[in-house]
Every structure is written in structure tokens, then in C-alpha cells.
Amino acid sequence: MSDTLAVPASLAVRNMLGDTLGRDVTVNVGNPLTQKDLPTATVAIYVDSYSKVVAVLGMDLKLAAFAGAALGLLPVGGAEDAIDDKELYPNLAENVGELCNILTGLLNKEGAPHVKLDRVVFPGESVPNDAQAHLLALGRRIDLSVEIARYGTGTFSLSLA
């Protein structure tokens, strides 16, 4: 068994998001989330069986709102209103929280350490310092611009510890 996780390929991210959302999803190399994005970002913290942080996923408000709406089969207007209001409405947050749990599948591979979702930090909540450090660090990471068909485009950053 390998003791390290592998950064998922952009194709794996596209396929998992597309399959989960039931929509065409396009991914391109994107810019990483920055410190100024964190107050409105949705951040998922993944841990190993020893509760050690092993990966941190961040979605900017646009991607979280669009993905939450797409997963719930909600009209795009609700997501656009959330973006305009700079908050993730509870129904969208619930859906994107479930999506973060599903995205654990990007990290769990045969022969690799088991990873589980520890918690999701939603816009307006404080991202723990260790999670911030992982999410903003250089290194083993993937940063994508994700477009969800008929919804919109946002930023996806996944960083491994």
C-alpha cells in the first residue's frame, strides 16, 4: 500500500462532477484560490484514519452556487442571486456539502490511505489555519476552472498535504 495520495487528473475531476451533476462539465487549467477568496469560498477538509488533514478542497462562491443548484436541479437564477448577494443560500450549501462528500472518491484509490470528509466550511465561517495553509500552499495540487453546462464557471482548487 502506498502511503501517499495522488493528485487526481483533471479528467477524473471532470468525469466525477459531470456524472454527479448529470450535466456536461468542462475543466481547464485555472488559477488557485487566494487568501481574498476564502471568506466566500466553500472549503472541504479531508482527513485520514488518524484524523490528520490530508487534503483540502476549495470552491469559490460561483462554483459552489452553480454546483449546488445543478445538484439540486434548481434554476440557475437562484445561484446567480446567491453570487450577487455574496452568500451561499442554505439549500445550495446543503447540496454542495453533499457534493464535497462525493468528491472524496477522487482521493480514495485502491492501495492508497483511506480518506474521509471531516467537515465543510461554508462562506462566512472561519477556515481553520491548518486548512488554509494547505489550500494556499504550493505543491501537490490541482487548480481548475470548471464550467457546468447551463449554469456557469467557477474555481476548483484541491491541495494535498
Automatic annotation (TrEMBL):
Domain of life assignment: Bacteria
Designated name of the protein: Chemotaxis phosphatase CheX-like domain-containing protein
Annotated source species: Catenuloplanes nepalensis
